Amino acid sequence: MSFTTMIGAAIGAAIDGSDGDDSTIDGAIEGVIVANVVKAVIPLALTFATGWLVLRGLGQIKTRVFGEDVPRN
Question: What is the DSSP string of 4-72?
Fold first, then answer.
């Protein structure tokens, strides 16, 4: 179990235990799930954002070099 997963479990248990209704085990399990989802989603989001910025930059460079895209009559 990684450190991130343990932190997620601890935070989930603390949040679930704050209401005092039941055991904190289900909160810990939810925290582990959320931590693992976040570990998978953040690299995907960063990759998408980098690709989008590169494509946007290439589009701006193309526009500056070749001018605006205007249809011919």
Answer: HHHHHHHHHHHHHHTS-SS-SHHHHHHHHHHHHHHHHHHHHHHHHHHHHHHHHHHHHHHHHHH------
Scanning the structure block, which residue is given the tokens 């248990």? 13
What pTM was computed for the model?
Answer: 0.60
Report the 10 Å Cβ neighbour count for 25.
13
Q: Taking the CA of residue 7 as centre, how many other CA atoms within 13 Å lie in the half-sphere pointing to its CB?
A: 7
Distance CA 20, CA 4 (A): 25
pLDDT at 56 over 90: yes
